[in-house]
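Re: the 342-residue chain
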Amino acid sequence: MSCHSIVRIGPLNSNDGCYTALLRSSITNYFTTSSSSNEDDDDDAEKNGLHRVVISNRYFDASVVFAGLNESTNVITPSESTVEDGIILVFDSSPSASQDMCFDSLNKLHESAEKSTDLGDLLRLCVGVCFGPSPLADGTKASEEEYSRRVLWCLDRGYEYVEADMSPMGMESGHNDRDKEGFARIIEAVSSCMWSSRVMKKRAAVAATTKAAAAVNTGNENATANADTTTSSNPKSDAEREKSAVASLMQGVDQDNESRNKTDEIKQQEMAFHELERVIADAKNIRESSQNDFMSDEERRKRAGDTALRMMELFDKLGFGDDEEDSDETEASSLPDGVELE
């Protein structure tokens, strides 16, 4: 691929980067083992020191490189381009975490990363690593307060907060759940992100070519048949035969255009649904923080209003607003003269 999406992940220094290195290798290993079509490319990437994977789903293929916060990507050939698409901040979520790897260490890390790199915002995750159940899942008041504090910090800076159990059992579980959590949620976020390096799959290209060719052949056969059966008393000119062939061809092209339009519409709706999931997750975090009295009424109203606007925009993309308008128009047209909807 000629373009690569860069995701910055950190910290990765020798003293406190073991959790980050584990998460990065787990992500790349997951996509490497789940895809066999790009093994040669992945081997070359590893030899060049790149932690690169190819994200492939039913809609697109994308090349994604997981690089350190200040790591150079010059090993990528000059003929290829890179785009900064996201950042993943990692910390030790255990109560015994060192000062350099605890959650509060992310403040300085985030500020430094924003100054040194033109960070992307397509994917922003804040991952608390543990081995086993989350330390904040004990149900105590202190744990609830700490969880809400972390979520609010992430919301203010555009991150999604994820607590990931990196034990073997934790990394294997949850991938088939509808509402994914932990490592499964990280994999889902990476898989569904609309990367700048994506190359859309042209699933209808071959079918379109076949239909167009069939339409041309049909048009030519019809024109030939008409020419053979035409009597001297009612001859068809070359222009008329050409017009008939073009009409047959355009009929096939119109049908193919309609098919492609439907495919594009489905893709756009899929993208909107992915964004809707993120909005719903943000709304859930706001509600939990409000219920625990960790957010003022003014801040809650502002965040709720912003979330509602995002949701309305997504509903418009999905066409829900049009149905409501059509319903209102239908209802209004059925009212007696002189009566209006309130």
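The radius of gyration is 28 Å.
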